[in-house]
Structures are given as structure tokens and as C-alpha cells.
Amino acid sequence: MIRLILRRLAQAVPLLLVISAIVFALLHAVPGGPLAAYLENPNVRPADIARLREAYGLDRPLLVQYGSWLAAFLRGDWGMSFADGRPVLTRMLERLPATVELAGVAGLVALLLAVAVAVGSAVNRTFDRAASAVAVAGISLPVFWFGLLLQLLLAHRLGWLPSSGRTTFGDSSLGDRLSHLVLPVLVLAFVQAAAWSRYLRRALREVLARPFIRAARTRGIAERDILLRHALPNALGPFVTVVLLDAAMLASGAVVTESVFAWPGIGSLFTEALGKRDYPVLMAFLMLGAAAVVLLNLLADVVVAAIDPRLRESA
Amino acid sequence: MILARRIVHTALTATALALLACSGEPRRTGPTNDLLIVGYDREPDTMNRYATHILEDIESCVVEGLVTNDERMNIIPVLAAELPTLANGGVRMLGDGGMDVIWKLRPGVRWHDGVPHTSADVKFTVDAINKGDWKPESVDGFDRISSVDTPDSLTAVVHYTEVYAPYLLQFVRGTLPKHLLDGKDLNTAHDYDRAPLGTGPYRVKEWRTGEHILLERVPDHWRGAEYPRIKQILFRFVTNTTTRINQLKAGEVDMVALVAWDKVRELREVSGLRLNHVVGNGYEHVTLNQRHFPAFADVSVRQALAHAVDRELIVRTVLDGEVEVVNGPVQPLSAAYEPNVRAYPFDTARANALLTQAGWARGADGVRTKDGTRLTFTLITQTGFAIRENVSQALQQAFSAVGVEMKVRLMDGTTISGTWFSGEFDAMLHWWQMGADPELTLFFAGDRAPPAGRNINYVNDAALTELLYRSDRTVDATARNALLREAQRRIAELAPEIVLYNTAKIDAVPATLRNFTGNPTNAGPFWNVHLWEIGTP
């Protein structure tokens, strides 16, 4: 197992290198650079733009820029944000807690919801039909639209919840924090649970059709135990892989949600940096995302191997 | 599956529309003099006024300039005791082609830490910018200053190596505190960038990244202990426009600066709000790139296109009548504004005649051609900006009526900036926000195409270029404005671009907020924040 992990980690290094080169090239291929904002500013003269290009090293060949970024990144230096001149790492760490809070709570809620709905769907056809309709809605809803809709309804028409932000100014109570979490969590969890419940439902149905379930029934095991103790654990293996891979996506899915709800996390930092073409921040964000996918993928393999004895032996 | 998706979408859209339609009572309690909450469209990168991007609203509450612009665009002294001019001896023209500007500072002004504000701070600011190892966003004018003398603590004599007409605005962004920043690397002076030491009515109490900046009033302000009246101002960052407007309606924020014109109508119904309207210092127009699309090089074609557009109709319908039609790049509030220029009223017959005379004949499909070339071009404009998308459709129809085919390509804001800078486009629908100084050289001089300037019409008229450079070398405001007026008349004759409307600035503020005036320039609506006060409704 340890050797498997080490081998996979070693494989991840060239993969991340290739990703970094592709991402760097793509970012720079998009027209408009970090100085585009200055072009609209009547106070910034053409000579200023030339001076800033040189000062930020944007006048060097792309390959040289990539080389110096990579060399610094490998040393653990994530560079300075073009926008405010502060270290990229500082800017990311400032935003991390808010994102972890939102994605963590939303992921947990989505997971519980997905398991409950999938189990319900497996045993009750009527419930299954209703759940399917809602799930299709959840999968097809544009997140920004759904978010604005909830804001209109729950915050503005009914006034039950704050429409956006992480706290109310001057109120540091737990209740206030939680009330701000409700709407963005609702949006993220609903969309995620919709996808996950569909996946788990299908896995459960496949397992329930297998011979060993019939065998269990003939032995007179209660239907409830068959479902929860025999079918569910067998269906969870592939499901865990999907959930862990989506966990990386959940943080990036929060890009839109965070922007709609003015949530001060890494996602809204990314949106902001994208508009400004703040390359050092964007590179750090995308590399973190790529690393998260690679690591969670590995984690998924390990977890599945641990759950499923057949895989454990072959590894 | 697709059908199910479509049904779900339809149902949800209907729900949303129903929700929008039913009118709820806004739960507006309103601000008090203890706290005013501003819904702000962006988080500043830095509070250093020399390194910030365009908008300086929050910064200007903290760091004051030697001068500022009032709501009528007049330059008024703030930390300066008076405006230096040729007439009052504050400006001396030198025999070697240079000039001296003598700034008299207002006595009794102290930085927030109690240290007096002096001419040494003015000198330090110039030296810090000219030393060259710091990255301020603009060094304009500073690059022509050879040195600063400080004969006494309240007098700074600024020596320019050449004539610099906009000298009055040189220190509009204030000064850097010498006693705090001397010997420091300004590129990494993050403490100053996040909470600058200023002389303004407010100081930064808290900057919570991604959430808000809280300003608190400074005790014993130089204007008198009674200023400012409002104790705290909270700038809450809400980048999503719809969310920002929703928060305003729900009373979660008290005011929003710069409301989009097509959002004004829905805010008019919200009780407790006042929509403050000022004429803007920018203009929406269609740039006609003569270099990239050679047909635009013919003045008859440009004039014909201008005549083809019913601007009054566009303003009335797309913009809800919130802006006014204008005829040139200098806006009505500017001292250099020339109202009597050639205008291009809506006249399809005239447009058709001009095009036919110029040799463009209608083809079988109605589109004009000349020597085998079709009169077909592509207009680029910003995506996600409903007004621009609608105006481009109106333009498309207007041009089609006179036999000109226009395609529309939408791009995001940053992409579009890069594109116009490269010159690779036929036409562009956009605005220029002009500087507080009425200079036009950068936009219309023949040698100021990118990267040397913003002349993206690529207009090259010798008489106009000569006039513009002459205006740059004229320090006397009256004489300079006369030259700029002549330049505006020349520009209107040339019709290098299709001028549409003035970019009016509309701010949504509490009805109880007194002394709010708005501001057309970069000084922004917070320019007189020390006077603001919440009154009784």
C-alpha cells in the first residue's frame, strides 16, 4: 500500500508539471493582460504602461516568464500578486477558511442528502419518481440563477435570511454566522446532492439485483438489514471515488456561488483575479486545484482498496 | 431528458418572474449618523492613491489631495491654501522653456498621527515617484519635474523642465507622509497600502479581505471638531451587480455608487432612496478604425453613418432617458466645453445621399459596394452589459437601413481592452472616461495611435494635431480652453467617431443623506464626505 502511494505520488509530479505548462500557456493566450485595466484609466499614460510592463517582467518572452515562475514555484515562492503587490500565499491563506467552511458544510450536507435520497429511491418507486424530477432540476440549474432566485425569495421577499456575505457587521454571534451559511450551502448542496444521489441510486439498484442479495433474502434477513448492511456498503465503493473527485470540484464550483453570495473565499478571489488577469494568483489557484484532484484521486483509490477486499489483494 | 430539462427551466423561470412581479414591502430602517453602509462594486487592490485603479472613493476619504474636483468639475484647493496661477504669481514661466509652480500649503493641517503636513511631504512624494524603483500606476507630469525646493514648511516650489498645462492636478492624489515612509521600500509597504496615514476626515479601522473596509471618523480634524458628522462608514464589497442592487432594496446596504442606467427604474420605486444624477465626464461612442477598415478613411462615409443613427430614440428606449445625447469628447461640465459644433441629426436621406456620392452603390442584397468591396464591418463591444448589447442591435438596424452591414462581436472587458490596444478591430462601441483635465491630444493627435496613445480612430489631421499640441503648451487656462474649443469644432467636422451620449453618473443614496452631490470626475462621490450628514426624513 505504501509503495502504491509513493509510486502514484511520483507519477503525479510530471503530470502537474505538464498541467502547469498548459495552464500557463492558456492563461497567456487569452487576450488582455494584467495591465488591461490601466488602458481605460485616463490618468495612466502610454509611457506608464510601457514602464509597468517592464517592471512586472511582462515584456520578456513567454518561455522565460514561465521558467522564472516555475523556478520560484518549485522553491516554494508563489510570487506577488500583480493587483496589490502582496504575496500570493498570504492572499490565498486569508481566503482559505471561508472556502473550507462553505465547501465543508455543503459537502457534508450534500453527502447526507444524497445517501438518504438514494436509499429512499431504491425502496420506494413513488419517492424515486419525485426524487428523480427534483434531481434533474438540480443537475440542470445554473448555479448563479438558482442562487439569485433563493436570494429574492428567502432574503428579500420573506426576509428570513441575510442575502449574502459571511457576517453581519457588528454581530459576531454563531447564529449570525450560521444564518449567512444557509443560502450558499443550500445552493451548493442541492446541486451536488442531485448528482450524487443519481449515481448512488443506480449503484444501489445494480447491487440489489445481484444474486447474493437474493440469497440473503432467502435466508430471511430483514429487508432493512439487506439494504443497509449488505447492499449499501457494496454500492459505496465506486461512490466514494466520485465523491472524493467532486470534493475538489466543490471548491471550484464555489467560484460562482461565492461570487453570487459575496462569500469571501478563494473562489471569489479567483473570479477577481481572472478579471484582472492576475497571473500569479491564477496560477497558484489552478495548481492547487490540479494538485487537489490528483491527491483526492489517489485518496479515492486508497479508500476503495480499503473498503473492497478484492482490490486490496490485487494491489 | 432534454424535454424534462426544458420543462423544469420553464417552470422555474415562471416562478422567478412571479416572484419579481409581486411587490414586497422593503424593510428599510435607514442609516444613522453612527453608521453608513455602502454596497461597493469592488475591493480595492491597495489604498495607496498612487497605485490604485481608477476609482479612489474609499481612498479619498482617508488621503486628501492638494486639490480636488467639485461636483461641477471645478478644481478647488484642499490641502493647498490657494490654486497657483500665472495671475497670482503661483506659476512662473522660465526662459529655458521650463516653469515653476509655487504651492502654498494650508496651515494647521496634521497627519492622523499628529505630525504637521508640510512641504517636505510634497518633496518626498516627488522624489519617491521619480526615484524609479517603485511601481506607481502613473508618473505623468512627475517625469517633467526636475526638483522641488522647500523654502519654508508651507511652501513647495516645483521645478518643471518643460511646460505642463495640467499642473494644477499634479497632486490631486495627495502626498506621501515623509516621516512614516522615508527609507522604506514602497513596493512592500503593505501596512501603509492597507491603512494609509492621511489627513482626511476618516481613517481605516478594519480591512477584512473579501468582505469590507470600515472607516472611522478622525477626532480633531483640521476642518474643525464638528467634521465629519458620520461616525463610521462601512464599504461592503459586493461584486455581483444584481446582488448589490438586491441588497440595496432589502436595506442591507444604505447606498450604492454608480447604478447602471437600466437598473435605475426598479430603484425609483424603493422608498427611502434618492437617486442622485450628475452629468458624467465620459461619453459613449462608436470608434471607427480607419486603419483596419479603410472605408472609414472617407469622411463622407463616417458622416453618413453618424446621420444614420437616431440617438434620441436609443436614449429614450434603451437607456430609459437617463442620459443625454452629446456631440463631442469634451463634456458639458468642463470649462473647455464647446457646445457649437457640427452635429449629425438623424437623417436617413442625407446618409444615403452621402454614401451614394462617395461611390458606394447598393448591391442586389441591399448592401452597398464600391470597386468590388462590400460595406460590411464588425463592431466589437463588451459582453454582459445589456445596454451595450441593445445599443449595438439598434445600430445594426440603423446602418442596415442605409445599406451598411454591421456584425456584432461580444467580448469580456479585459479581452476588449487588449483588442483595441492592438488595433485589430473595425469598430467598437464603448466609452472613454475622460480625465479631470480636458486634454484631447492622447485621443486625437495623429501620432498618438497605440501604444503611444488612445487614438484608435487612427484619425490623422495635421491642423487638429497642431492645435492639440499647442493647447498642451499653453498654461493660461483661458487661452488653453480657446484652443481646445477650436479643436472640438475641428473634431466634429472630421467625425472620426459616432458620438452617442454622455455617461451620466447616478448614485443611489438614502433620502435622508444631506450634502451629497455626486461627482463626475475620478474624485468620486465621496469627495465631500466630511459634509455628509443623516437628517430626519
Describe the SSE topology:
The complex is a heterodimer of chains A (315) and B (537).
Chain A lengths: L1 H28 L6 H4 L6 H10 L6 H13 L13 H36 L1 H16 L2 H15 L16 H35 L2 H8 L4 H38 L5 H11 L2 H29 L1 H6 L1
Chain B lengths: L1 H20 L13 E6 L16 H6 L4 E3 L5 E3 L13 E3 L5 E6 L14 H12 L14 E8 L2 E6 L17 H4 L8 H5 L7 E7 L3 E6 L14 E6 L3 H10 L4 E2 L7 H5 L4 E6 L3 E7 L10 H10 L2 H7 L30 H10 L3 E2 L5 E3 L2 E2 L1 E7 L3 H16 L3 E7 L1 H10 L4 E7 L7 H4 L17 H11 L4 H18 L2 E6 L2 E6 L2 E2 L18 E2 L3
Parallel strand pairs in B: 1-10, 1-11, 17-18, 17-19
Antiparallel strand pairs in B: 2-3, 4-5, 5-7, 6-7, 8-9, 9-10, 12-21, 13-19, 13-20, 14-15, 15-16, 22-23
Number of strands of chain B: 23
Number of β-strand runs of chain A: 0
What integer is the average pLDDT of chain A? 85
Distance, first to last CA of chain B: 55 Å
Gross morphology of chain A: globular
The radius of gyration over CA of chain B amounts to: 25 Å
* Overall 3D shape of chain B: globular
Instruction: Report the span from N to C terminus of chain A.
Output: 7 Å
The helix count of chain B comes to: 15
Continuous helix count of chain A = 13
> In percent, how much strand structure appears in the residues of chain A?
under 5%
Average pLDDT rating of chain B: 91
Overview of the structural elements:
- The complex is a heterodimer of chains A (315) and B (537).
- Chain A is mostly helical.
- Chain A is built from 13 helices and no strands.
- The longest helix of chain A has 38 residues, at 223-260.
- The model of chain A has no long low-confidence stretch (mean pLDDT 85).
- Chain B is α+β, with helices and mostly antiparallel strands and 537 residues long.
- Chain B has 15 helices and 23 strands.
- Chain B has helices spanning 2-21, 57-62, 119-130, 178-181, 190-194, 241-250, 264-268, 299-308, 311-317, 348-357, 386-401, 413-422, 441-444, 462-472, 477-494, and strands spanning 35-40, 67-69, 75-77, 91-93, 99-104, 145-152, 155-160, 202-208, 212-217, 232-237, 255-256, 273-278, 282-288, 361-362, 368-370, 373-374, 376-382, 405-411, 427-433, 497-502, 505-510, 513-514, 533-534.
- In chain B, a hairpin with a 2-residue loop joins strand 15 (368-370) and strand 16 (373-374).
- In chain B, helix 8 packs antiparallel against helix 10 and helix 14 packs antiparallel against helix 15.
- Chains A and B meet through helix 2, helix 3, helix 5, helix 6 and helix 7 of A and helix 1, strand 10, helix 6 and helix 12 of B.
